[in-house]
Specification:
There is one protein chain. By secondary structure, the protein is mostly beta strands. The chain has a single domain, classed as Methylamine Dehydrogenase, Chain H (7 Propeller). Helices cover 3% and strands 49% of the residues. The protein contains one helix and 28 strands. The strands form seven sheets. The protein has a four-stranded antiparallel beta sheet. The protein is globular and about 45 Å long.
Length: 329
């Protein structure tokens, strides 16, 4: 009982008072239930596999680490070429991992069982979310310093170029979970392409500074964007209607995500905070400060009840999401 009280006091966070408003949810409770040793000074990326069995982490050293999501014991490590690993993602079946390395500005694809490197692309933008792996694991999206983006067939090497918008770096690329679309952050806007037709069909504008983070909902009907302007935004797809603006971070938004049931949005920031929002209304629910310095990354578990965050302090935190008392939307 004393230990539970300690967790509630230390990690209970704060639900900020933003004035009278109609609530669709009771205040959300998020509690740290596990702390993982990352072995690196900073954690830049975390991701749960879609089947919910694994947690992937990467950071300032050159190692990909994979934990069991059942007991959070370290299962295996994959050594990457020297350099910071800014971003790492699983394919849908968790058999392949794409990662961006600062050495030689490279994007690499590995077999997740430790079987070795399958592909490497050099001379690319390897920072933050500037590359992604298609859900089927057969295509990779990469960003070039020239401002163009390419989708590469990992088996044949065939490339399709997407060069709309300003000739600036794309710090955020993201395939939709259904595999039909590619969202590209170009400057202050997001351009969404139909992969089958190879054409842009939607332009999302509203942010005042560069797009830094992107995340589709699991049904591909919603997109969350995060920006250097300190805000996140929720967009309805395919209409492109802006559903909500999520203000409050005092510095850049570093990651965004949505729970599998489309109820919650998570944002993390260079200000060290983790913020929770009602995904349907954009209502602010809760703020947590658990990382010392930037909270770089976040990932919801497919069960919707757990969340992983990684930060500049080298910590990976696993959060338990308390849904008791939740009202029906």
């Amino acid at each position: 009982m004393k230990m539970m009280l300690f967790f509630l006091l230390v990690f209970g966070g704060e639900a900020e008072d933003t004035g009278p408003r109609k609530r669709s949810f009771h205040p959300l409770r998020a509690t740290v239930i596990a702390r993982l040793t990352s072995g690196t000074e900073q954690v830049y990326s975390v991701q749960f596999s879609q089947d919910g069995k694994w947690l992937l982490g990467s950071g300032q050293d050159s190692i990909l680490r994979i934990w069991s999501a059942s007991d959070f014991e370290l299962d295996r490590e994959i050594n990457v070429e020297s350099g910071k690993v800014h971003h790492a993602v699983f394919s849908r079946d968790a058999k392949r991992i794409l990662c961006g390395s600062s050495l030689g500005q490279s994007v690499l694809v590995y077999d997740s069982d430790g079987g070795g490197k399958r592909n490497q692309f050099s001379g690319v933008v390897s920072y933050f979310q500037s590359a992604d792996l298609h859900p089927d694991g057969k295509l990779a999206a990469i960003s070039r310093p020239s401002g163009s983006c390419e989708v590469v067939d990992l088996d044949t090497g065939k490339k399709t170029s997407f060069s709309g918008g300003p000739a600036v770096y794309s710090y955020a690329l993201c395939f939709s979970p259904d595999g039909k679309w590619l969202a590209i952050g170009k400057g202050r806007a997001v351009r969404i392409y139909d992969l089958e037709r190879g054409e842009e069909f939607l332009l999302l504008e509203g942010h005042q500074k560069f797009i830094y983070a992107l995340s589709f909902s699991f049904d591909s009907k919603t997109l969350v964007t995060g920006s250097l302007d300190g805000t996140a935004r929720i967009w309805d797809l395919p209409s492109g209607k802006e559903r909500a603006v999520l203000p409050g971070h005092s510095r850049y938004v570093s990651s965004v995500g949505m729970s599998v049931d489309d109820r919650w949005v998570i944002t993390t920031s260079w200000d060290g905070s983790v913020r929770f929002w009602n995904a349907r209304t954009g209502e602010f629910l809760r703020k947590e400060i658990a990382h010392e310095g930037t909270a770089w990354a976040s990932s919801f578990h497919p069960d919707g009840r757990r969340l992983a965050t990684g930060g500049k302090d080298g910590k990976i935190l696993i959060w338990g999401m308390d849904r008791r008392g939740e009202k029906s939307p």
